Amino acid sequence: MNKTKAPLLKAVNLRTYIPARRGIVHAVDGVSFDLHMGETLAIVGESGCGKSVLCRTIMGLLPEKAVIGEGSSLQLNAKQLVGLKESQYNQLRATQMAMVFQDPLSSLHPVMTVGRQIGESMACHLKMPPGQVAKRVVSLIAAVGLPHPEKFTGLYPHQLSGGMRQRIAIAIALACDPKLLIADEPTTALDTTVQAGILALLNHLQVKRKMSILMVTHDLAVASNVADQIAVMYAGKLMEIAPPSKLFKQPNHPYTKALIDSIPKISQPSHAPLTSIGGRIPDSAEPAPGCRFLSRCPQEKDRCHRKEPSLDTGPSADHLCACWYPLGGILP
User: Fold this and answer.
1) Distance between CA atoms of 169 and 94, rounded to whole angstroms?
2) CA-to-CA distance for 111 and 155, rounded, in angstroms?
3) DSSP string of 102-160?
4) Which of 62, 154, 290, 300 yields a CA-CA distance of 20 to 30 A from 97?
5) Cβ distance 206 to 179 under 8 Å?
6) Model confidence over 273-324: pLDDT tens digits?
């Protein structure tokens, strides 16, 4: 992978604010990262930390009242996405970037055949004639690993299993050959065997199509197996970014270590209590000054209350950590 070239997706100080009754929710609050061509970036973290909102910010699929904060920058192939009109975003969706949503049963149209759903974007964006669309629909269903693809074109989502629906959702996302695929919990609610098949499929399609993947997952094992970089998100912020080998060998942020420690281990005695992270994620509508993790951190100090650490230091250029007192001992 040539990282001397400009990244395919570049976020700098990205902020997404959503008005709510209790105040302005800082759902994404100063997120910065690079995603290069052919690379997979996994975003991990607890529920409610802003992972899905980050994905929807990139796709331009935010609630009507949501606001992108001043000074935010989000570039796809060096094209600035912040400030685009809906009509301009529509030209990029499907052809340049696409998204596989968390629940394929709710994201697929219940009364439209899967063949029609796959072909819809090709007819709209690529202006393909009906005969060409039909042929490509069959080839896409075959590409996502479903046998006898012709028989699937006339089926409805409720007639498919969970794994089949997820493969159809991937086929829809790939219909117009996007360079960026965003996968929001693509293996949620699937059993282990089906999950492994979906991950292997994504890896195969990524290599074949030379696309980049931004994957959201709760499963650290999944992230370690598929990602080139893992970004740990907490309360709207990125706490640590590193390759899986470095992140698991030497986590620098206390939150990252707590997540890793909470993974059940086969070496533990039977019925041993699971390790959990005490406390809860702070209210994103009322972010306190200082580090977001300080109320749950076992090593918080006065400095952590006064100023928020930035994600700009770590043991190496590809291992960054936002902590005043990182576990690796690297101080800003």
Assistant:
1) 12
2) 10
3) S-HHHHS-TTS-HHHHHHHHHHHHS---HHHHHHHHHHHHHHTT-SSHHHHTT--GGGS
4) 154
5) no
6) 888 898 888 888 888 889 999 999 988 999 999 999 999 776 778 999 999 9
